[in-house]
Each structure stands twice: as C-alpha cells, then as structure tokens.
Amino acid sequence: MCQVFAGQAPERYSSTTRRLRLNGQSTSIRLENAFWEVIDQIAENDDLTTPIFISTLHSEVLELRGEPENFTSLLRCACLKFLEVSAVSEPEVVAAE
C-alpha cells in the first residue's frame, strides 16, 4: 500500500513559493506543488484567479474567526475539504447522466 504514496513523483511534494496580496499586504505562501494544483483547480472552478481566491478566502476567515493562526495549514485543509466535497458530489453527477 505505501508504494502508492512513496512512489509518487517528487515534483508533487516539492514546495513552491508564490507571492500575492492579502488585504492589500504583499506576502508569500509556500506550499507543496500538489496543494497548489488543487488550489488552482478550486479558483478555476469559481472563475477566479488563484490570488483572488486566496485573498477572498483569507478575508472570509478574518470575518468569521479572526486572523488564522496558520494560514498555509488552513489552505491545505481547504484542499482536503474540496477533495472530500468533490468525491461526495461526483457519484451524483454520474447518477444523473
């Protein structure tokens, strides 16, 4: 079983830093490439650019809970949540076809 995880391409777990603005402040976020792929997909699904999606998410979190303790962890968990929701909704799409 671990071969599925251990055998993945190293590019997936290599990190990339992207610079963007959050609430007018220039910042950088470092995530593994696999997470960037999911974040890019979430943004595309919402017809947003990735920086606008991330900035919107950050603003909504500020409004709901205040400044997040670890925003990159929140982004990783958002990716997991997106994948969970996608997995649940896919059977409905298949069933409707």
Automatic annotation (TrEMBL):
Superkingdom of the source species: Bacteria
Residue ranges occupied by any Ribbon-helix-helix domain in the UniProt entry: 16-81
InterPro entries with a match to the protein in the record: RHH_dom, RHH_sf
Pfam families on file: RHH_4
Protein name: Ribbon-helix-helix domain-containing protein
